[in-house]
């Protein structure tokens, strides 16, 4: 009888261990699925952030190019104005060059 009791206890213990392992397996599977979902969500966030970053860089590059173009236009306009002044008032332009860009004290 004792062998049967020991065998019965061993079967109960094995069943209990198997049940415990199944429960842990199911819990871990659920945890893995949750982590997969979170990972996929974070992956999408990273993709969105990367796209936003690239868009921001593109906008800044466009603004930079527009500012360069505007600067070139302004410099061209200033050069044209200087040339017109040189033609209309050559003495004034020569006088400014001769004094190093300072105004004369006689004015």
Give a topology summary:
Blueprint: H1 2-88, H2 90-98
Helix pairs in contact: 1-2
Can you describe this structure in just a few lines?
The protein has helices at 2-88, 90-98. By secondary structure, it is mainly α.
Task: Please give a handful of descriptors for the protein shown.
rod-shaped, disordered C terminus, 2 helices, single chain, mainly alpha, 107 residues
How would you explain this protein's 3D organization?
The chain has 107 residues and is mostly helical. The chain is 90% helix and 0% strand. It has helices at 2-88, 90-98.
Sketch the topology as an H/E string, one letter per element.
HH
Give me the number of helical elements: 2
> Strand share of the residues?
under 5%
Low-confidence stretches: 101-107
Number of strands: 0
The radius of gyration is 42 Å
Main sheet attributes: strand count, strand direction, barrel closure: none
The percent range for helix content is: over 70%
Q: How confident is the prediction overall: mean pLDDT?
A: 89
The shape is rod-shaped
Structural class: mainly alpha
């Amino acid at each position: 009888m004792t062998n049967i009791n020991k065998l019965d206890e061993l079967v109960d213990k094995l069943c209990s261990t198997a049940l415990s392992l199944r429960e842990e397996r199911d819990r871990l599977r659920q945890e893995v699925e949750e982590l997969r979902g979170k990972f996929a969500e974070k992956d999408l966030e990273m993709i969105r952030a990367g796209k936003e970053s690239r868009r921001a860089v593109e906008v800044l590059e466009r603004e930079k190019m527009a500012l360069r173009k505007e600067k070139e236009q302004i410099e061209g306009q200033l050069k044209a104005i200087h040339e017109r002044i040189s033609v209309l008032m050559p003495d004034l332009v020569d006088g400014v060059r001769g004094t190093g860009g300072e105004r004369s004290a006689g004015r």
